[in-house]
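User: quick one, fold this
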Amino acid sequence: MNAASVTQLVDAPLFDGLADVELAELAALTMPWTAAAGETLFRQGDRGDRLLVLNSGRLDVSVRLPDGCERSIGSIAPGEIVGELALLGGGRRAATVRASSDSSGVALARETFELLRLQLRPVARTVVRRIGEVALRRLLTRYTAIATGLRHLPLRSMPAAGAFSKFEPAASDFTSNGLPDLHLAEILFFRRFSTAELAALRAGLRLLRAPRGTQIDPSEALWIVLRGAVQTSVIGSAGRQRVRLAGPGRCVGHICVLDESPRAPQLEAVLRERAILLEVPHAQAQQLLERNAAAAQRFTAAFFDDVVLALQAVDAQLVPLL
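Assistant:
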């Protein structure tokens, strides 16, 4: 065990309250890093491959604007973490991070952390949930900013979708709907589930179908897209702003899983082609995020991975407007 690394992790808010054995487990997987003043640690657009804990020095966070200039949007102080979303969802860095003074700390690589997730280690579940909740609240903040015009975003006027039409519940046997468990396991959201875990997850859930143009309500349930595509838009006073097009293996209605969902902005979700969706009632989604069973842990990891991807999608639209 690296005692120095444990000391470096213990003050980081992300790891607050972890048991000593969990801290030691994480610390054993970290690597030290140093950066001289002015050195770039990662650039906007780089592949997200590691989380950095800063123990000494200071880091500057900036974004590149369409005209090629960079604008500072914040700084990282000792004891804080940067790049934590790299452990979930993959994707690219949303900002550039440079050392504004000589700095040092420890790094946790995505690939290394992934081993803990695959093993369903308790420490991995805790870290995934904490990072995911941060991302989920950021997503709620972004959607609220769009809806209220805090960033002076020119909302595009879009035609209203067709009125909500009832889905016809599919038979409980996925195979009879041309969507056997074997196919379900190939869908992005479920790629890490075993056959038994898939069966445990979908027990009691409805498999639903609908034609293009159908409007669903993200405030009623979390929807996992199995086939087709669903467009989500934030509703504002000047119109609608599309924030995501979710294809197979992606989710619709993340922010409504939050306890704060009553203050979430109005969302519109419309099927852009004939689709098959798996409906997960919010109460059941919340229960899955709390449980320790294997299927629940797989669900938690897949859900928060997708939250990060949804956040990256909306951030890509907001960066030019900072």
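User: anything notable?
Assistant: The chain has two domains: 3-119, 126-321.
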